Structure formats: structure tokens, C-alpha cells
């Protein structure tokens, strides 16, 4: 029996349909891979930045503990009580410090590492902690802070409640590496230690404190709120953070099947091998408890640089996969509509005209190969001509759609980059603001507590000094008491100036004139006798709206620092200028001193940071100056190279309005 013959229209229709389906199939496969790869790579770039933000939160928490311990250890009343072995007084004071600052551990040991006071478990004392890795560093008079693993025996010394809090039963976890044991009894702490020394620098003891991270969710929740801002997808949190003790989740906001925190679950085997065994970061998709995430892991190391855990952030992969599926579905529907449109035209025209259809078939094949510039050359004014025109318009639309897709991809990348940059700037500003705010509160509290006793000491010591014969052997000792008490009052005043800066009293100020006044106050001092001062003032510099007294305080502080950096011998250059847009006034202070190391340059505006010898500086001058310039909506920049001097540039907005 002879096989049935298909009409030319049917053959052409089937052929045309086959070409479109095959081309669309490969286009969809290629497009799917490109879209998925692009979205996942962008997600990995974001999670890499998110991990940096997580480390800032983690490091800030550790640094806060270090600040609390070091400031407490530096209290004169503390080391006097240590010298006198007033253990009851030490216990009351240190217990209050631990409670007020939310510490789990605050322990005082003597200069050999033997515990004197353990605030959480006062009955446990007299044991030797000199073998502890952090205590060993403090015994060398170093102030240190680091994550640390403590055994159950060490935790029991601090309190049974802490030891029990650290115990975690292992929960079976998909894709996790098998473990021989079924529970963890050790705990991870953020721990800091500082030496307790008298005024001569003799080590009297060591003070260490910390917080237990097991079942402590403050850090991971702060990371989630800061980085992911509570974003959800179909009722699920899109972003998560975790602190691992080795491969065990001890603090996390990852949820298990029951919607509870997945404490006690284990990391996947491939991540454990990469991060814990090989010591390298992991930034890729990984299975986290119940689902796939785009993740970033980095090792947590103790003070001896040994890996003791991991810090993790991750974003749910499903939103990105669903977005890719939606884009592909849209393209598929569009392609299907185009196919139906072409088939209708083809069915209408193939019954009468063959040659134009052949041309169109050839054109279709060229377009299927990717040549979107190809045109059908038909000049008739009938339906075929209309079809040819429609065909050509279709290729134009495809080319435009393709270009629009490319443009969309570039726009998306630019927006992601801009948003990432904004997030980094916001996070940096937030961390700095929180740090300054917490130090400011602490400074105000300290100043308030010691200001009145210092005033009384100063008044009574002055009265005794006036009544003491100058030839008396006690006269010089009383003078030293008055001098040192006055210095303490100055430090307290600096603390209050930093913690509670007064609002500027604004007025019209001539910056050039203000610089000359500042120099007049300083250059008669002995320190300036061998310093050459060069002035390059802009004669056309306009007056600006500012607090002259506060700006003079900033200028004098920078000039004095420059003179001390040059040891009273060098060249100090002062230069003023205004920007081309006339909206910013710049004041440069350039010295030829020893310069500033890069690690010090990043910290010079931090309160209490000073490179001067003990007793020659409080570390508050530049911090106060920084606050004054911020109040004026300006900024201070520092450029320096060791051995080639330093340049401080104060930038102020050029405000000409009157009060």
C-alpha cells in the first residue's frame, strides 16, 4: 500500500515548526544556563560581602569584651585592692561589672595565674590558670582577645549552669559527616584578658572575662538583622547566620523541620573537609539542615591560630531558582505565541505561492542560526508582501528583545554593585557609630563616678600643701599629688568632652585668621622654637559659618601633635584652599615628622588610642577633634608615610549664611 502523500503546505508547516522547536529548545537550554549562572554568581558575590559584615559584628562583640576587661583592669582601685588582698571588695566590684556588662565570665588571678576571685562561682578559687592560652599571653603583660574552646572541667569552675548550657546532643543531619560520639560537652567563648599593673608597671595580677556562645543567639541575630533586614520568601527567612564549634551548630537562626533553631545539627561533609580540615573559605551552594542555600563559610581560629569553628552566612537558593524559572517560562510563552503566529501565516499563503515561502524558509533557518539581521526580500504588495514585512518586523523585535535582555542584565549587575557598595558603607558607618556610642557611654559613666572624688582629693591636697613648710620632706610629695590629681581632672574633662560634646555656637569665621590666632598661642612655647612654619593661605578664602572656638581647639590639637611628631625640630606647612565648586574649604597641616604607621593611621581617631608615652597623652584629642568636625558636617583625612611626615586635611562646608 502506497504511503499517503503530504501536501506541500503540510510539509512546509511541519518543517518550519520543527526548525522553530529545535531552535527554541536549544535557546531555552542555553538561556537557562546563562540566567541561572548569572543569578547564582551574583548571589555568591552578595553572600561574600555579607560574610564580611558578619565578621564585623563578630569582631565588634569580641572587641567590646576586650575594652570592658582592659578598662576594668586599669582601675586604680582594682590594683590597690589586689595589693591589699581585699578579696571581698574585689568580688563585689567585679560581680557588678560582670552583671552590668552582660559577661558570663569575669575572673581575677594573681601574677602567677592563681585565681583570687571568680565572680560567677565565688566558692571556686585558688586553682592555677597559668596554662590557659590567653592567660599565658596576659602574664607577658599583653592585652589580648580571642575565641577559645573550654573543656567541661574549665566551665564547671566558672559555674555548673555554664557547663550545662554548653552540653549539646548531636542531631542526625542529612549530608553530614559521621561522628563517633553523640554529644558535645566543650563550649566556645569569646574571651579577653588584660594585665593588672600598678603605677610602676609591676604585674599584680590578670583579669579575664568572656561570654559563652553556646545557645547565645545575640551575634547571629544581629548579623541577620544587619545584613538581611528580615527579608522573607514564601514565609521563610531568606538569610541565616551560624557560629559553629568545629562542625557543630552552637548558635544559629537556621530552622529545622519543626521551625526551631537547628542547635545540635552538623555541617555537611564537603564543607567540613574544605573549611575545618583544609582551612579554606567555602563560598558555594551547600545543603543546610533542610534545604539548599548559597553559602559562605570561613574558619574561626583561636589565639594560637588553630581552627576551632566556623562563621557562616547563607541565603536561601530557592528565590533565585524561582526567578530563573519565571524568566524561562515567560520566554517559552513568547516563543509559543510566535510559533502560532507563524503557522497561521504559513497556512494562509502556502496554497498559492511556493517561491516566497522557500525564501522565507531559508530566512527562518538563518534566523535560527542566530543571524537576527537577516531580511526576507519580497517586494509584492499582496498578502505575501505583507507576510514578508511581518516576518522582517518579527526579526527586528527579536533583535530588540535580545538587546533589551543584554541591557537588562547589565543594568541588574550595576544595581547589585551599587546596592552592595551602599550596604558596605552603611555597615561600616553603623559599626563605627556603635563603637563610639558604647565607648562614649562608658567614658561618661567613668567620668561621673570619679570626678567628685578627684575634686575632693585636689582641694584637700592643695589646702595641706599651703599649710606645709616648703622645707618639709612632705612638701614635694604633696606637690606631686596635686600635679597628678590635676592631670586626672584634665583626663576626666577630656572624657566628658568626648562623651557629651556641646553644640557648636555658630558665627561667621575667617579660617586664615583663626589659623594665625592658633599659631600665636602655640609658637611661643619652647617646643616650637626650632620649627619653621610656612603659610600658604588662599587670600580669596571666604568666611564660613562655624564655631570659631571649637575649630581653634581642633587646629591647636593638630598643630601640637605635629610639633611633637617632629620632636620640636622640622617644618610645619599650613595651607588653605577652596574647591572649584566653592562649596568646600580645605585646611592642610603637613609636618616632616616620623610619620604614622598604616595600622596606627586606621585607629588614630579612636578614643584612648595614643602612640605617646604613658602620662604624655590621653588618646582623646583627635577623637574629640573628629567629633567637632563631624558636628560641622565636615571630615578629617590623614595621609602619611613612615619617615616622611604626615598631612592632616580638615574639610569644612563653605556656609556663607548668617545666623
Give an account of the 3D structure.
- By secondary structure, the chain is α+β, with helices and mostly antiparallel strands.
- Among the domains are: 38-332, Beta-Lactamase; 503-653, Heat Shock Protein 90, CATH 3.30.565.
- The chain is 50% helix and 20% strand.
- The chain has 16 helices and 21 strands.
- The strands form 6 sheets. The chain has a 5-stranded antiparallel β-sheet, with helices on both faces. Strands 11-10-14-13-12 form a 5-stranded antiparallel β-sheet, sandwiched between helices.
- β10 (239-245) and β11 (248-252) form a beta hairpin.
- The radius of gyration is 36 Å and the shape is flat.
- The chain starts with 7 loop residues before the first helix and ends in a 6-residue tail after the last strand.
- The mean pLDDT is 82.
Q: In CATH, what is the homologous superfamily of the domain at 38-332?
A: PAS domain
Low-confidence stretches: none
Regarding quaternary structure, how should these chains be classified? Answer: single chain
Outline the biggest β-sheet. 5 strands, antiparallel
Helix content: 40-55%
By CATH, the architecture of the domain at 38-332 is named: 2-Layer Sandwich
Beta-strand content:
15-25%
SS field, number of helical segments: 16
CATH topology of the domain at 38-332: Beta-Lactamase
Distance between the termini: 106 Å
Mean pLDDT: 82
What is the 3D form? flat
Per CATH, the class of the domain at 38-332 reads Alpha Beta
Amino acid at each position: 500500500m502506497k504511503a499517503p502523500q503530504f501536501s506541500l503546505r503540510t510539509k512546509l508547516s511541519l518543517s518550519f515548526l520543527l526548525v522553530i522547536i529545535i531552535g527554541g529548545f536549544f535557546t531555552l537550554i542555553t538561556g537557562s544556563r546563562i540566567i541561572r549562572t548569572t543569578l547564582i554568581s551574583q548571589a555568591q558575590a552578595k553572600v561574600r560581602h555579607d560574610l564580611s559584615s558578619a565578621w564585623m559584628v563578630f569582631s565588634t562583640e569580641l572587641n567590646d569584651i576586650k575594652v570592658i576587661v582592659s578598662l576594668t583592669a586599669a582601675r586604680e582601685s582594682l590594683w590597690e585592692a589586689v595589693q591589699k588582698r581585699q578579696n571581698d571588695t574585689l568580688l563585689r566590684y567585679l560581680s557588678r561589672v560582670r552583671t552590668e556588662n552582660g559577661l558570663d565570665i569575669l575572673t581575677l588571678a594573681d601574677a602567677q595565674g592563681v585565681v583570687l576571685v571568680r565572680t560567677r562561682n565565688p566558692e571556686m578559687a585558688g586553682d592555677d590558670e597559668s596554662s590557659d592560652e590567653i592567660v599565658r599571653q596576659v602574664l607577658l603583660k599583653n592585652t589580648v582577645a580571642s575565641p577559645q574552646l573550654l573543656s567541661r572541667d574549665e566551665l564547671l569552675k566558672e559555674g555548673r549552669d555554664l557547663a550545662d548550657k554548653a552540653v549539646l546532643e548531636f542531631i542526625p543531619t542529612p549530608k553530614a559527616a559521621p561522628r563517633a560520639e553523640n554529644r558535645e560537652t566543650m563550649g566556645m567563648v569569646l574571651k579577653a584578658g588584660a594585665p593588672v599593673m600598678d603605677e610602676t608597671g609591676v604585674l599584680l595580677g590578670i583579669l579575664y572575662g568572656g561570654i559563652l556562645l553556646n545557645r547565645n543567639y545575640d551575634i547571629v541575630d544581629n548579623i541577620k538583622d544587619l545584613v538581611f533586614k528580615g527579608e522573607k520568601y514564601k514565609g521563610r527567612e531568606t538569610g541565616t547566620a551560624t557560629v559553629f564549634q568545629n562542625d557543630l551548630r552552637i548558635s544559629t537562626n537556621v530552622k529545622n523541620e519543626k521551625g526551631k533553631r537547628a542547635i545540635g545539627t552538623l555541617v555537611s561533609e564537603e564543607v567540613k573537609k574544605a573549611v575545618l580540615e583544609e582551612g579554606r573559605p567555602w563560598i558555594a551552594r551547600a545543603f543546610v539542615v533542610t534545604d539548599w542555600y548559597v553559602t559562605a563559610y570561613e574558619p574561626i581560629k583561636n589565639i594560637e591560630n588553630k581552627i576551632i569553628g566556623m562563621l557562616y552566612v547563607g541565603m536561601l537558593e530557592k528565590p533565585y531558582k524561582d526567578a530563573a524559572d519565571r524568566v524561562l517560562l515567560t520566554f517559552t510563552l513568547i516563543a509559543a505565541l510566535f510559533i502560532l503566529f507563524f503557522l497561521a501565516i504559513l497556512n494562509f499563503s502556502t496554497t498559492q505561492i511556493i517561491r516566497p515561502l522557500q525564501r522565507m524558509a531559508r530566512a527562518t533557518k538563518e534566523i535560527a542560526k542566530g543571524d537576527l539581521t537577516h531580511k526576507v526580500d519580497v517586494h509584492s504588495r499582496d498578502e505575501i508582501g505583507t507576510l514578508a514585512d511581518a516576518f522582517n518586523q518579527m526579526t527586528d523585535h527579536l533583535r530588540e528583545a535580545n538587546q533589551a535582555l543584554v541591557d537588562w542584565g547589565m543594568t541588574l549587575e550595576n544595581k547589585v554593585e551599587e546596592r552592595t557598595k551602599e550596604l558596605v558603607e552603611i555597615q561600616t558607618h553603623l559599626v563605627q557609630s556603635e563603637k563610639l556610642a558604647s565607648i562614649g557611654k562608658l567614658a561618661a559613666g567613668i567620668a561621673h563616678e570619679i570626678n567628685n572624688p578627684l575634686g575632693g582629693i585636689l582641694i584637700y591636697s592643695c589646702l595641706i600643701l599651703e599649710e606645709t613648710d616648703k622645707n618639709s620632706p612632705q612638701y614635694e610629695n604633696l606637690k606631686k599629688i596635686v600635679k597628678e590629681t590635676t592631670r586626672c581632672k584634665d583626663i576626666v574633662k577630656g572624657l566628658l568632652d568626648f562623651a557629651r560634646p556641646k553644640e557648636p555656637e555658630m558665627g561667621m569665621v575667617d579660617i586664615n585668621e583663626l589659623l594665625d590666632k592658633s599659631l600665636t598661642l602655640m609658637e611661643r612655647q619652647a617646643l616650637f622654637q626650632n620649627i619653621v612654619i610656612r603659610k600658604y593661605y588662599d587670600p580669596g578664602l571666604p568666611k564660613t559659618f562655624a564655631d570659631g572656638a571649637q575649630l581653634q581647639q581642633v587646629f591647636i590639637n593638630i598643630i601640637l601633635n605635629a610639633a611633637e611628631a617632629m620632636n620640636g625640630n622640622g617644618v610645619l606647612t599650613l595651607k588653605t584652599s577652596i574647591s572649584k565648586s566653592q562649596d568646600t574649604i580645605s585646611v592642610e597641616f603637613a609636618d616632616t615628622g616620623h610619620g604614622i604607621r598604616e595600622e596606627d593611621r586606621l585607629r588614630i581617631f579612636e578614643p584612648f588610642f595614643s602612640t605617646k608615652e604613658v602620662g604624655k597623652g590621653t588618646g582623646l584629642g583627635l577623637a574629640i577633634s573628629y567629633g567637632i568636625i563631624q558636628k560641622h558636617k565636615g571630615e578629617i583625612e590623614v595621609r602619611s608615610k613612615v619617615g616622611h611626615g604626615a598631612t592632616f586635611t580638615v574639610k569644612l562646608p563653605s556656609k556663607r549664611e548668617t545666623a
